[in-house]
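Good morning C.,

I know you're traveling, so I'll keep this short. The sequence:
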Amino acid sequence: MGQILKGTIIYGDEFEPVDGYITIDNGIIKNVEESRVRTDTIIAPCFVNAHTHIGDSVIKDPPYLPLAELVQPPHGVKHRILEKTPSNELVTSMKASIADMVKTGTCAFADFREGGVSGVAALNSALESSNKIKAKIFGRPKDKEMDYLPLCDGTGLSSTNDIDIEIVRDFVRKTREQGKQFAIHAGERDSSDISNALSLSPDFLVHLTHAEKKDIKAIAEANIPVVVCLRSNLITGSGLPPIKKMLDEGTLVAAGTDNVMLNSLNMFSEMEFLAKIALFDDRQVFKLCTLNGAKVLGIEKELGSIKKGKKARLMILTKKSNNMQGIINPLSSLVRRARPDDMIEII
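The tokens, ready to paste straight into the viewer:
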């Protein structure tokens, strides 16, 4: 028996608000029908969080320190804490973060997972209890061992300034040999690691807060997607990524929440920051938080927008909450104003 939903649908890859019905059968969108129906709900695709570090769930209130002291391997605060955290505690904390993502409307995420094979195994264990979210796991070598690769989707490294570039090239070669993706942070502390990162031909780059005009052009010409993490960059003092300039050059840009120790996994908050601080384009912001993330992770055929044939991963919000009462533009209100407590159902 199929399920029929009625509401203002944020429809298609261009996210046009249309009133109508969605028919769902066996978890797949079978039809979207426009109709002049009065409705008090908004139906939107769930979020894709394109960059997280949910191992950080074991430390959610770190001291205010410079970025390098917090996260630079191998002796940053997070790495010291992760090293001494028992596996069962790590798994429990990650389960809580996964449940939080689901509850706040995220249907897929990409995680840079530290700790080699044991770190990847811990995240896989945490994911066993949830079938409501899709994960792309990017492992990281421990003591140069690449034994995590069969257990995950690829390799995700910190800056090339943290590791000898020839060692990084070897990591990339071994990752590609197994048909996996490779991604890397770049341009977060300064621009000195961007050229080396580009030379590795990664599947995507993360941060680029210090990308200069020549870097932005080179990234676009190489057709390499970028994941930005605005709230994280603000709290670490890294600056604002030049999102509009990257989009103007034709670069695919997605959004992520980054380290759990710095920020919640709430994509509503990330979306509001993007709209009010960086981009001032509601439709583009929503793309960054949904479809563009799906494209970066290679899952856009099943997730990221509401279209016939895609999986029904939807969030239904009320227009009648104290927060949403009186809205006129559903998409703009969703992007700039909506909160998790405005949701009445997640499918």
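Safe travels,
E.
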